[in-house]
Amino acid sequence: MSEFRLITPEETAAATAVLMETAVKVGADSYTYRLKNQTPHCKFGEQGICCKICTMGPCRITAKAPRGICGCDAHGIVGRNYLRFTAGGSATHSDHGRSICETLYHANPDGPYKVKDPEKLIRIAHEWGVETEGKDIYDLAHEMAYLAMGEYGKVFGYQNFLKRAPKHTQELWQKADIAPRAIDREVSCAMHMTHMGCSSKAEALIKQSLRCGLSDGWGGSMAGTEFSDVLFGTPKPVETEANLGVMKAENVNIVVHGHDPSLSEMICELAEDPEMIALAKEQGAKGITVSGVCCTSNEVAMRRGIPMAGNFLQQENVILTGACEVIVVDVQCIFPALGPLSKCFHTKFVTTSPIAQMPDSEYIEFDVESADEKAKQIVTMAIMNFKNRKPELVNIPQLKQKATVGYSVEAIKKTLDTVTNSHVDQLNTLKPLIECVKSGVLRGAVAMVGCNNPRVRPDTAHIALMRKLLENDIIIVASGCSAQAAAKAGLMDKRAKDLCGAGLRRVCELADIPPVLHMGSCVDISRMMVLVSDLSKDSEDGWQISQLPVVGCAPEWMSEKAVSIGNYVVATGLDTFLGVLPDVTGSSEVMDLLTNRVSDWVEAKYTFETDPDKLVDAMIERIEEKRTALGI
Ligand code: BF8
Prior knowledge:
Elements: H1 9-26, H2 31-38, H3 43-47, E1 50-51, E2 59-60, H4 74-105, H5 118-127, H6 137-150, H7 167-176, H8 183-193, H9 202-232, E3 238-242, E4 252-257, H10 261-271, H11 274-282, E5 288-293, H12 294-304, E6 308-310, H13 315-320, E7 326-329, H14 338-343, E8 348-351, E9 362-363, H15 371-385, E10 401-405, H16 409-417, H17 431-439, E11 444-448, H18 460-471, E12 474-479, H19 480-489, H20 502-511, E13 516-520, H21 525-538, E14 550-554, H22 560-571, E15 576-578, H23 588-602, E16 606-608, H24 612-630
Parallel strand pairs: 4-5, 4-7, 5-6, 7-8, 8-9, 11-12, 11-14, 12-13, 14-15, 15-16
Antiparallel strand pairs: 1-2, 3-10
Helix pairs in contact: 4-6, 4-8, 4-9, 4-22, 5-6, 5-9, 8-9, 9-21, 9-22, 9-23, 10-12, 10-15, 18-24
Bound molecules: FE(4)-NI(1)-S(5) CLUSTER with Oxygen (BF8).
FE(4)-NI(1)-S(5) CLUSTER with Oxygen binds near residues 294, 311, 333 and 451.
């Protein structure tokens, strides 16, 4: 085995800098150029004190004008903006979850979408009190999909999945009046509360932000994750590779980008079709390589080992390699810049969803009924485009790392089963993990999530934080673009154990795991909620979620979805550390609510810190405080 070496974000940046030369050559711009044109950013926007929810304004809060025309002060304006931001994220994740439920509703043994994990479907049905005995698995799938879609508009009651949380957490939600009702209702209610002349009390707005976030994490996102597993299989450890070097110059390169596995799964399926491979060879290529960007990449990496070309701020780079025949996208986190950029190359930019339509793209609408036909059309388009490459523009930076991915909660428990000496009561539980934490072999865990943001040099905060946490025997579970940052650097290579403290290294050796566990895409942060719930339930000492030495962190986040996630992670009882400030600094009251007073309701709060060194120290300190409080 060759010697292990970490690839630093600086190395990736240097290797991709040459792609900027190509950009100049072909007359394309990139986010770095556009960023320059957009800075300095608007200070009113940054502080959240610009209000444009009616046409009396826009109003901006200054020392001379402390209230908008309607009389709303900075706290009301910031609180409303924060709640609307949350609602955007919650709606987005949840609508993704709804499409998965729709796909499940159309699953058919003879169609493109099948039930790959019937056991999981039956397990969820039992949780929801649905009779399964003697039912055809596809009838059950359709019944469950219908019920799941009903969760979006349920008339009375709360989200079904809330029952997965420990009793104490459920009681906190009830007491604070933040248990989420129908998913669509919480988004709708957020829009209603923030309409002109409704709520301007910061406390009420922040409470609804938590509730709307919970409807995402314990509602829409959880449906997205769970029913994706039913359809496409529950992830288990699988080998893959990450970084731009996974693209192959001699092959037809198809890049899948976005979030919904319904599209990417079909593309992967077709790309393996011998008929398609033969066609690619006929066209002069050696084969077909599918690689991914953003969360759809995480989805197909976790289930199929499809390599990850990169995370959010790599999306332009895949086109700049000059070797991308098709970049096919579904929804979310797609730069509109890909349209004009693709025009500078032979690359076809294919949009597929009515939700994400963009200029300068070829629109091939993807739907459940014609999924295989459309996938075939897209894969054929890529193959036939191979001959249009301009060889002088082809330059794939030769950087890639090995990664073991696919750590669903089920997979984590299975892995732990291998180290328990088979005591029956320890099987299929998280007890061995709790023992490691109790004994101090592991000090705790951090859930590292979220995006890249041009405000931070791509991946630098993710990697710096992870390295220090690992040195301190703190295990990491990661998702979204944070997981891809780790994989690109090499932290999901099992050999990265050598970068860990002695305790964590020992755990990695015994369990044969990398020190950063890939738990999936951003909707899969719902997996992390199940993980901490099960840790609490499996703890013989009755540890509540908020007592666990576990925190959440998003060091380079940028999207509305990330704020929705932050809200449900905090509301579930995990202290959450953000490395980019949300636009709330214009209100001392909202700042105090988020970083302090929310803990009266949910026993957890936010910490905002833009200096990565201070951020990681604050997390380690919090983990140690939790250990001391537990007496371990
Ligand atoms: O949902 S981490 S940049 S890709 S928003 Fe987007 Fe952020 Fe990446 Fe996935 Ni999540």
